[in-house]
Amino acid sequence: MQETVLTGALEDYLETVYQLVQSRKLARVKDIARARSVRAGSVSPAMRRLADLGMIRYVQREYIDLTPLGEEHARRILARHRILTRFFREILQVTPETAEADACAMEHSLSAEGMDHLTRLFEFLRVCPDGRKFLSSFHSCPRIQPASAECMLHHRDGTEAIDGKGGTTRSVADLKPGQKGRVTQVSGEGPIRRRLLDMGILPDTTIELERVAPTGDPIWIKLEGMQLSLRRKEASLVSVLAA
Amino acid sequence: MQETVLTGALEDYLETVYQLVQSRKLARVKDIARARSVRAGSVSPAMRRLADLGMIRYVQREYIDLTPLGEEHARRILARHRILTRFFREILQVTPETAEADACAMEHSLSAEGMDHLTRLFEFLRVCPDGRKFLSSFHSCPRIQPASAECMLHHRDGTEAIDGKGGTTRSVADLKPGQKGRVTQVSGEGPIRRRLLDMGILPDTTIELERVAPTGDPIWIKLEGMQLSLRRKEASLVSVLAA
DNA sequence: TAATGTTATTAGCTTTGTCTAACATGAGCG
DNA sequence: CGCTCATGTTAGACAAAGCTAATAACATTA
Ligand SMILES: [Mn+2]
Ligand SMILES: [Mn+2]
Ligand SMILES: [Mn+2]
Ligand SMILES: [Mn+2]
Fold first, then answer.
1. Predicted TM-score of the model (pTM)
2. Domains of chain A, start order
3. What is the pLDDT of residue A144?
């Protein structure tokens, strides 16, 4: 009955118990184990810990029951789980299973403030006319599905709108050695896009083209004091605003 | 040199080492400890584990250096950290420290797909004209700051646009006992809003008004088979579309 | 009632990650 | 040269989670 510091794992157990009680009126160790993909031997000690924290009523060998406190917590976790899953699925259009997994990891660590603001964004996107218009524009943008020149143009316009004075947007591959640019977007898909993002090529980072191999193919850039090499193909996916 | 399964904690150590090497050219145990808020005694074993995984070059008592593999990983984590922080700050307008903390937790667990799509949303919001328009409408909506009747109206219009056939939007407090409604938005701020969200009152959930206390103040609702009681003040913050 | 099978608990082991406190190392100074 | 202090390492304890394998308890069936 103390400070109620539930760990992520315990929160997941609690969520599971809550859902089992809801759906089939009783929570058995075996079902909890199956739902969480752990062995029964791991469940018993977890239940003892939850009972010690005043979250469940746990008489050994009997069915497990939530206390009002536990129910409150469980409902909170589940609400987070649900809204996060929906955000990943409906807004970001992530694969259902991935959405589920990401949400179930995030639900334990996201601050109340972050949760609150994210929910606001979610509501706004579905309820507000501006949000709904934006959302359909976002989802119909070919970059989410396959890439297309048409949308590039669309984005290029946007980019020029950003800085107002309409600097020229080009790809990193088109910079001259020594020239710098501010990244506006990273195109491409799947592994190639991820590799670029993983290297730290993000919107608003500054890239300097250091040198180009004689053949023209590997290109060396400087990014936050770090030298990286890119293939020309990759470099052409990075749009920059010449600085 | 095996499967490269870095835990969250090790990823944070790696990120810290990377940043220290960048900023002051060398990483000392003491500085790592300070940066991560742990004791020096925890750092040494962590460094050994990172060395075993081929991430750092670690000769005891000497300065710590990243291997190319470690550098690649560190850059990836840091890129995630940065873009997530910016999402929380610039899009969701979360307090800087909270944004930092939320990002630093999320960076370890978010899937590549989730990361990719979130980055896309981020880019889209800053680069596309539609996104930029939406963003300024989102941020200027008084609900993010103090609540206002004006914006309620704004939202009401949107709600009616949602279901097309223009059902009437009212608050839960205005339902009659036995009547059901689908939640369209949860207003209010801070703790009160959070309490409602924590109870599971989210957009698109169905609420039935069960009964109202004689005095009119506590109100009992049914939400996903669960009975909850709300104060009238809270209930009036929940907009529903009568079903 | 006795045998059998299912389910739950326990004991013992592992890994991760933290702490404290004791100890080791080396640099600089007297 | 030897002392002192800052820094780094180690040992030992602990808590959280998980696993396996042995055992206990219950329920069902013969
Ligand atoms: Mn979870
Ligand atoms: Mn969950
Ligand atoms: Mn982190
Ligand atoms: Mn981080």
1. 0.89
2. 8-74 (1.10.10.10), 169-242 (2.30.30.90)
3. 44
